[in-house]
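**Reference record**
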Amino acid sequence: MVFGVFRDGHARTRGGVLIAIFFCLLFGDLYVRGKSAFVRPMPPRVTMAGSSLSQASILDRTGILNTPHEDTKLEFAHGESGATMLARLGFALPLLFTATLLSFVLYWGALLFPPFAVFFICAFISYGWFKGILYSFSALFIGIPLSHLYKTADWKQLGNDNKKKSPLLERTLGVSEEDGKALGMAHPNSESMKDDYDTIDGMSKGKLKMDVPMWTSKFDNEEKKTLTDKFNDLTHVVIVPTYREPLNVLRKTLNTLVVQTCAKEKVIVVVATEKSDKEAVSKVETLIEEYSKNLLGLFYTVHEKSSSAETDGKSSNVAWCVRCVQHTMLEKWNYVPEQILVTVCDADTYFDEQFCDCLSYTHAQNMEPYNCMYQSAENEFPNVWMVPTLVRVKAVVDSINMLGMLSSKYAVPYPYVCYSQSLRTIMDVKGWDVDVVPDDFHHFIKCFFKKGGHFRLVPIFMLTGNNAQEHTNWFSAMRSRYRRAKRDAWGAIDLSYILSQWYQKRKILDKYHAFMLFVDVIEHHISWSSYFLTVMLGGMMSAWLNPELETYPFGIGIRAMALISFGPILFATWAYIVCDFYVRMFLVQDRKYFEANSAPLWWQITSQVQWMLMPLADFIFAAVAALDAQLHMAIWPKMSGYRVSKTVDRSNLEYKIAQRHIMPNGTWRNEPFFNDANINSNLGGSNMKSSSSSGLYHAIESDGSDARSERERNHGRGL
C-alpha cells in the first residue's frame, strides 16, 4: 500500500508519508534509549583508529573503564597462595631488629659491654640530630629556593622553547657529574646541542653518548625527538583512588586538576573506586556531570577482589585501575605507552596549577625516563591549623623532612602519597602488587628489582598538599593519625621482599645498590621505631641497671651525656620553625584549599611552644605505631580490617574564596564555590556572608552560621 502511494499518490501525500516514517523512527529510537535521550541526545560514536581522544565526543571521554588489558594479570609480592614459611619468618625481621637494638641499650649491652653501650647510645643520639639538621637545612637552603623557582617558572613556555635555560638541577636528571649546577640549555637533541653542552663544565662524555629517548606517535606517525615534540605529545592520566570519601573532598581535588594549564588538552582523570563503596558510582557520575567539559577525559573504575590473597587498600585498587587504563588508552585510543604519564594520588590531593606541565618538562628532559619515578614535595599544610597540636607538629616535621630529603644529595627519598611514572615503566614492571599495603614504598622497591637495581626517584619541587588527619573531635583525630602511622610503618614488611628478590636476581643485580637499598630500608623503619626508646629510655634506664655507666665517658655519666648530645637538635628545631613560617607565608599563601595562615598571627607565633611536644608526638606516631605494626606483621602478616583515614564530611559546607577561581562549569568568577544543589539552581551566593580580604577559604554552614567559629575558639586550648 505504501509503495502504491509512492507510485500513484500526489507529492503532498508522499511527503506526508516520509514525515510520518521519520517521526516513527525518531520516537522509536528515543523509546529504546530511554528518557535520558530527550534530555541529552546521544551523539554518534567517533571511530578511534588514527584519531586522538581530544577529537571524541564528551560521551566517549567519560564513563566506566571495566576491561583490563589482555596482557596483564594480578601481580603478587608473596605469591597467590600466600606467603611461604620462609617469607613468614622474614616478616618477623623488623621486630627482631628492633627487639635486639632495644634490649641491647636497655639491658644486656649495659651489663656486658658498658663502654660500647655508652658509645652506641651517644652515637644514636647524634645520628638523630644529624638527620634533623640535614633535612631541615637542606629544605631551608635548597628546597625552598627551588620551590620558589619552580612556582614562578612558566613551564609551558619552557617546554616550547629549546633555548630557554632550565630550572632543573643536573643531579635531578643525572646528566652531569657535577652536582648543584643548573642545566645551561633545555635538551640534548636541540639543534645547538653541542654549543649548549659546551657551556657546562664537567659534563660526562658518557652521558652524551646515551641514546636519546624517543617514540613514534600513532596519531601523526612522526618521531618525537626534541624537547618541544615530546613536551606537547605527553598526556597525563591522574588516578584518584577513593573509598567512602565525601563528594566535596573529591570536588576539591578535581578543582585543582581542572585549573591545570593543560587540563583540556592533556589531563585525564580516573577515579578508582571499590565495589564495596555503594555510593561511589553516584558520586563519580556527579563529578562527570560537573567537570568533564574541563578535562580531556574523566573516567572511573570499580575494583572487586578476585583473589583471596588480595589485600584491601590502595595498591590493589590502583593495580586494577591501571590495567583498565592500559587497555583503553592503547587499544581503543591508539596511544603508545611512552606518551602517557601516570600520576597516583590520594582523594584529598591539591596540585599546583602547573604540576602537569612541570612533570612533562622534567620527563621530556630525562635521558633515562623509564628507569625512574617522579615525586613532588608532599606536605600537610592545607589544614594544619584545624588538627590537634600533636598531629600538627608531626605534620610540619614530616612536610619539611620530605622537602629536605628531595633536596639533599645525601638523603635517600622514597615515593610518598603522590608519585608519577611513565606507562612504559609500569608495563615493564607489570604494574602494582595486590597483596601489599603501602603502595608507594613497595612499588618503588618492585621497580628497583625489575630494573636490575637501575632505578631512582626524581624530585619535582612543586608543593603538593594533602590534609593532615582531621576529625570531628580531638580523640578521633588522634586515632586516625595513629592508624595512618601504623599503615606507613607496615612498609617494614618489605625487608623480607627485598631479601627474596635479592636472592632471585643475584646474578643480574647491581649488588652494591641492592645492599644500600636494604640498609636504607632498615634505617628508615628500624630507627623510626626505636629512636625514641633508645634515646629516652636507654639513656636513662641503662644507668639504673648498671651504675658503672655513670663513670662513662670520662666520668661525665651516660645520663648527662645523653642530655648534652641532645643539644644540637635545638639548632635543627629553629630551622624547622623558619621553614614552617616561610612555606606558609610565601609559598602556599595563594594556593587553593591551603588554610596554612587561617589562624591569627599572634597564635601562629605563640603556638611555637608546640615543639616541646615533639618527643611525645614522635613517641605516639613513630615508636608505638611502628612497634604495633611490627608485632602485628610478625604474628599475623595480613593487615586485615584495612581502614582508611576518615575525612571530615563537609557536604553541607560551602567554600568561599576571596581570589578568582574556576567553577565546575568552566567559568571564572569572584564568587563562592557552591555545592551541587547551588550549582544546579544557580543561586549565586546572595545568602552568603561577605568574605574577608585575606584570600583564605572560609567554611560557612548552609544556614549562614560560621562552622569554624568553634574551632577558632579551640586554638587557644591546642585543639
